[in-house]
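re: ur question from yesterday

yeah so i grabbed the chain u mentioned. its 379 aa long if i counted rite. heres the sequnce exactly as i have it in my notes:
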Amino acid sequence: MKNIDEMYQLERFSKTDEEFELYYENELKPKVEALEKERLKTMDLAKGQAKKLILPVAGLILIYIFLSDLAFYAFAAVVLYGAYLFSDVRKQRKALSQKIKEEVVTDLVHFLNKNFTYEPRKYLAKKQFVRSNIFKNNPDRYSGDDLIKGFVGSDKKEVQDIDGNPTKTDLSFSEVHAQKVERYRDKNGKTKERVHTIFQGLFFIADYNKDFDGLTIVVPKQRQINILPSIFDSNSENKLEEVDLENIDFMDKFTVRTTDQITARYILTPNFMHRLMEFTTREPEKAEQQEPKSIKEAFQMGLSAASNSSTESYFETAPYFSFRNGKMYFMLPTKKKHFEFNLLLPLNKDLIKSYFSDINIALELVDELNLNLRIWNKE
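ran it thru and got these structure tokens back, copy pasting raw so excuse formatting
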């Protein structure tokens, strides 16, 4: 018997590493090399300004030793002077960061899918995060950036479809950071705040106009204490109930709750659960380790390892899913800033490939979970 991919001859939307390599060499490499030259110029400026701070810092040390009463004022003066010296460095770094997003990341987005748009300063709205109903607490603080949206498939009627409708899936995703603020009084009666992160990572919404009612939530076992939204509590007409599915491996990893047992089983088919398990438990690729050739290179490699450590543990914390009103909400905790660069590190193919991976994961999600296949439509 043919599997579902063979039956429908599904198009795969994600790109391979080989396709990225070819695109980088033919299209992006000249741009990246030009931007690297700008980075080196900014670094030269930073080094020159740092040299101008040597004498003031030495004077500050002497004042601290011999005229300690004046140390605070001397320290403030050195800080202000340093801020003045590095103001141009900050401006150039900001301009370079903007160029990377406008030129390189935008090109990558269009390479991955011509139907995607990229807006670096926008992100998925807070109301969408709340509407997913994955977390018990709504965020008091909510921010993000790097919104990518569009569709996969085709909305043209002449294209062969599955159920009389074009095989099109609307997709949007961005980086978001949702926080809960807890206010309390200290022992002196002063009001203070504790800030807890609810979620930090990539937030995806796939809208394929499926006809299913209610709410179904799929969350990692170790994080289930943070779900069960208050609007679906035990006293509600739409009570969230735990679902017991036949896939033992899936149930060992995830907790499933729903307001409609029939709908939950309608969505979480054996094929879908199998694909979800494969997608969320796969091992991330790791770059080959190279021996540093100098102290400077060792320092840069250390910085690179620190900035990319969360990339290597992409799936250490399993993702969250919810299904509501024909949409699938998907949250992938990544604990890192996406599409950012470190001025101390070179702009090269490795960095650009990390950007590629961050975008490509959305298309892999569509491919691996068959999100573009209309297997859930009801009459």
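noticed a couple things. The beta strands are 117-119, 141-153, 168-185, 191-207, 215-220, 241-242, 254-258, 320-324, 327-333. also Residues 113 and 152 are 8 Å apart (CA to CA).
anyway ttyl
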